[in-house]
Amino acid sequence: VKGLTGDVFSLVSGSRSSKTFKPKKNIPEGSHQYELLKHAEATLGSGNLRQAVMLPEGEDLNEWIAVNTVDFFNQINMLYGTITEFCTEASCPVMSAGPRYEYHWADGTNIKKPIKCSAPKYIDYLMTWVQDQLDDETLFPSKIGVPFPKNFMSVAKTILKRLFRVYAHIYHQHFDSVMRLQEEAHLNTSFKHFIFFVQEFNLIDRRELAPLQELIEKLGSKDR
């Protein structure tokens, strides 16, 4: 597909290849959170995803959830970035995950009443909103000794619930494109990691996971 290699390249180098693609969120090198990220990557490398999502001994749960939330944002950013040219106003006039699930956007501040919009618009709103949360030092403190706010867990749950919708849309509406690009192994591994993580800490309500319930059960049974 013409232009795709350029897309993937700019994705990796961190420039904006399209309006829906957001810059990578970096965790500062040398910080404790960076060490946690490296630990997560090393455990992931062993291939045991159930073990990889567990809270490392002696670590703070909020910090562990923060590091992984940033990582999932970056992963979804890249996965969606590879298929933006197939996710258009024309191909996806509503944000859906199959015929039974449609999402309307509201963030509670700029857009209080849920609005119906196309998938690329919805995902742009969603990723911009997540980015704003991750960049907010009062919500996601990157400095050592700065405490997490009391509402951190509910913010993290909302972020993860919304990020799940991007996976759901990709699987339902764009899996054929993912297959053509030979990205399905990457997508499946990322999603499996995400699901094991949210299950480990009970971060997303089961009803929210319904659009991909069969896939989730399949991934879980393969792992037993």
TrEMBL record:
SUPFAM superfamilies: Mob1/phocein (SSF101152)
Keyword Isomerase: no
Residues at which Zn(2+) binds: 87, 92, 169, 174
Name assigned to this protein: MOB1A kinase
SMART domains assigned: Mob1_phocein
Keywords noted in UniProt: Kinase, Metal-binding, Transferase, Zinc
Top-rank taxon: Eukaryota
GO molecular function, one term: kinase activity
Entry annotated with the keyword Cell cycle: no
